[in-house]
């Protein structure tokens, strides 16, 4: 993208007034976004964005400058801007920038351009036709297709030179059904770090029809009862609760600020002994996977919690340096070259337990089973959460009975984690559609097996 000689010059310019580590981050991104609403294509947007960020570390101080102009003059000017806050004159010699390869393989079988935009648009229009043809109560179908290719090059004055090539694809259709004043929405969505072979792994037409079926079926759901009760959470996407209500508190910036319930508690029992939790950025095909993070650190699998014991936090380079750690855990991520990295999750999940998921339901005398989670909110540093369900069922005497609408679950993440009393053997990751917001957007995966929370507050519509 830019010649190594220019990288070397830029790094030297960034360190000209001191600083102990300088970095050049170059990004070249292309994207395609298609959206459909009211049976017609609303958006068809091709995007291109490229630029570079220059970061300089002065002990604990970090400065950053970025430019969308990759010319020599502009890069050197950005380097001087980043260097401007320097004290002292500890010039660091820039050394060998031989590229380091990742052993990780994230294969792309069918490239994004193996289908035309018209073909991709047709997928969304077909979803509209299928869902509306299913039942007249289907009132709206929202469709979306997104592909992003993001190439990054990361160099630093310690000789780091790595590259990553991230391909993310995502397809979704939301079906809204209406009966009188009741609206129900059901969504099919999938994606990942892969090419268009993902379409061969799914039956789009069938999955859209199933989604319409669910939206219409839920129109007859009964209002959800409210109060404290036992809640069984689904595998896969259900892991969003752990991500939002506990995962963020394991990110090192919340830890060093002392804002997290998990600060200073490594080695302590922080969860039920049934709970082990992992962040793993190395899984092929997953949306949060990286060969190298945005600090250039190789991605890794990090055991966060093991049998209830807190083992590790998620670190980026800045926080690792501040804490005097030798390495980060490869969790430094940034939305684009316009942003500095911060500690972020990659693919984060609660690991499999031993219970048969059917036995978890069978062992529950009364409660609710959430089959499909919708959105939710959590206070990231404290873990207080409110999540809603688009599909839920009453559990009576160990069996799923009445469909329920309007179910919300609220509580505190770290507290719930100590109380979970059954963990299934059916670990699954989500369908590959998650985006985490923490000031900057980051694509992530979540996951979990079926879990049971013995007592948690359910807000209903009854
Ligand atoms: Zn998040």
Question: How would you summarize this macromolecular structure in one to three sentences?
Answer:
The protein has 462 residues and is an alpha+beta fold. Helices cover 18% and strands 40% of the residues. Residues 243-244, 248, 436, 438 line the site of zinc ion (ZN).
List keywords for this structure.
462 residues; alpha+beta; six-stranded antiparallel beta sheet; 23 strands; binds zinc ion
Describe, in plain words, how this protein is organized in 3D.
- By secondary structure, the chain is an alpha+beta fold.
- The chain has a domain at 227-459.
- Helices cover 18% and strands 40% of the residues.
- The protein contains 9 helices and 23 strands.
- It has helices at 4-14, 72-83, 117-134, 204-217, 240-245, 252-256, 317-322, 357-362, 413-419, and strands spanning 21-37, 40-58, 61-67, 138-156, 161-179, 182-192, 222-223, 227-233, 277-280, 301-306, 309-310, 332-333, 342-343, 347-350, 366-378, 384-396, 399-405, 408-412, 422-423, 428-429, 434-438, 440-448, 451-459.
- Strands 9, 10, 11, 14, 20, 21 and 22 form a 7-stranded mixed beta sheet that branches.
- A hairpin with a 2-residue loop joins strand 1 (21-37) and strand 2.
- Bound molecules: zinc ion (ZN).
- Zinc ion binds next to helix 5 and strand 21.
